[in-house]
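Quick one:
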Amino acid sequence: MLMKQILGATAVLGLLAQPTLAAVDTIQEVDVTTDISAIQNADAAVYWGSLEADLEAAIAARVTERLTDEPGARILVDIREVELSSAFDRALNLGDAVLVGQVNIVDDTDNSNFDAYELSVSLETARVVVPEGQTIVFNTDDRASYQALIDTFAQGVVDRLK
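Output:
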């Protein structure tokens, strides 16, 4: 009897530990915001300069069949500026670059269709492979790593949609 109660409690905890997913059938808007002017490091500001448009496009490309002009869910992403400049400020390598943002799924037509979470991706989670013995230096000319971060973040947002 005690074993059944323990298994039941474990199953409930397992369900509660699962991430919530917003049931998004239609998407009215994808909006990414970040205050590039708040980034004090000039190299970081240049590197991340087109982040808003690039991330919006990457998310939209993954949900094209759900995009509509009709009322629907809005995907709102606010990227933390401090994380964008930290790898540049500390003169660390590209592996230290990270995108961190607050993601909110808001649906004015269905209040139960809501989700909010912080998403963080780094080149480690983006699975960028570096040949053994080589290092990657974080610089403003490295667009492949930038794109890997954008793509991984966008996929993380889409993966949380039902």
